[in-house]
Amino acid sequence: MPKKNKPTEKQRLTVLTLENDFRFECHKGLNCFTRCCCNITIFLTPYDILRMKNALNISSGEFLANYTVSMIGDAGLPVVMLKMKDDDRKTCPFVTRQGCTIYPDRPWSCRIYPLQPESTKITEKAGKKYYSVMNVPFCLGLEADRVLTVAEWIEEQGINVYQEMEAPFKKITTNEFLSQNKITNKKIQEMFYMACFDLDRFRRFVMESTFLERFEVEPEVLKKIKENVVELYHFALRWLEYGLLGQHVLKVKPDVMAAKKQELKIK
Ligand code: SF4
Ligand code: SF4
Question: What average pLDDT does range 192-198 have in this prediction?
Fold first, then answer.
């Protein structure tokens, strides 16, 4: 149960561990209700897009075309952001006066707020996670009486599954090789975009191109990726690990491998 001993002002500005308290409560009726859903930049993870497009019952292609903008990030890999409405307040397309219309499937950034991660590669390697409370002057939720720990907030907001799904994606984007070798090849950027964000197109690519003639894919794996979008997502990341990082996580068919070796004159 949330505790009632309020953290001090100083504690709110400190880096928090999972066990530390912070003060927060958001609900309808507050003067600031939905004010935080305007004029913000929300980066979307692949799993955010998967959940949101399923909630809206549209394809990943439709979702990307209608609700997102993308750009190439520092490492040369595409990043995707929620496209805000073209009104004075730059309002989120999913907000109404009653609140978020996709609340059960809202993106990770909307769930974790008012916390923000403060972990570094070193702390993450050591298995430690740190957070801070964002300082948003208009947010009355930060003045609430309700006190809870970071771990309680993560549990309550359903963030654990987002973190689990993010892990294999992060493993690729934070890879040492990619950090040192900026991707500039447009075909690779397009491949990354499709595999991470446009899963319905990736599924067609697997089923309808020469993919299955080139790679060994077990029938049960094929069945799973046809039927389950989360399985498809994991398979797409394995394909990226193979293609981008040279990891042997997919098996090329022997005849294709032999032909390639002959072409490259490798014995
Ligand atoms: S309390 Fe904060 S998070 Fe909740 S609606 Fe107000 S500004 Fe947004
Ligand atoms: S997705 Fe929902 S919670 Fe997030 S900004 Fe839009 S309306 Fe607000």
Answer: 98
